[in-house]
Amino acid sequence: MQSIILVMKIPKKQYIFICLLTLLSTLFFTCRKPQPAQQERLSPDTEKQTTLKEADLEPLPDGFCLLTDSIPDAILEIRYYSDNNFVGTCIDGYEEPVALITQKAASALRKASDEFHKKGYRIKIYDAYRPQRAVDHFVQWSKDPADTAMKSVFYPHIQKTTIFSRGYVARKSKHSRGSTVDMTLVDLKTGKEVDMGGSFDYFGDISRTKSESITAEQRQNRLLLRNIMVANGFYSVQGEWWHFTLCNEPYPNTYFDFPVKRYL
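^ thats the sequence. predicted structure below, dont judge the formating
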């Protein structure tokens, strides 16, 4: 009874204000729903694309690896993935601009790379493993005498029909066995390629390691490349200053044909 008397003594305007405030508070807390925490996630379409992309990756053949997994600072300029080669187009089997190599060759190349780094250089790779289908592409190209689009750049002084007989290209390549690399050096300070006195895949006398057509400094640069590679288990070929094959390669009689691309 006392509480009723107290309420009745509150002024009318103040009483109405209190009631309205109480009502509004009740409505606010009743209607408000907690918002779920925002989560950053891919849209269903993006998730599907990502899943499909991962599913498309095949396991890398046994004994092989991605060269840059072993040597992360290696520079890649995969010429046969581009049109900057003696054929003038992307070569069959080169699906991505990556370099594959046998694990055994990668281990030896890693040691050579470390030595070059100490002397102020990084390695640059033009080609490594080459599928047989790429070599077959070269063979088919050689049968078209009219296709000489890149003659002025890569073979200006020889006839296209003699490229195989002269040994510039082979129907079975060491590259297809997985333990051969075509490479040069890049100066760590300048970021420029070391002057080797000739370009990769040039068909001519100037490509011989000890060619008389280059300067003493250029010859010294070639010998630096060759000597460190040889010291780390590779052998060179005199006709191509850029070419090195692992001496004790793991697959000396196997010519692989899986494409050059990323694998799991």
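The beta strands are 64-66, 75-76, 100-102, 121-127, 180-187, 234-237, 240-246.
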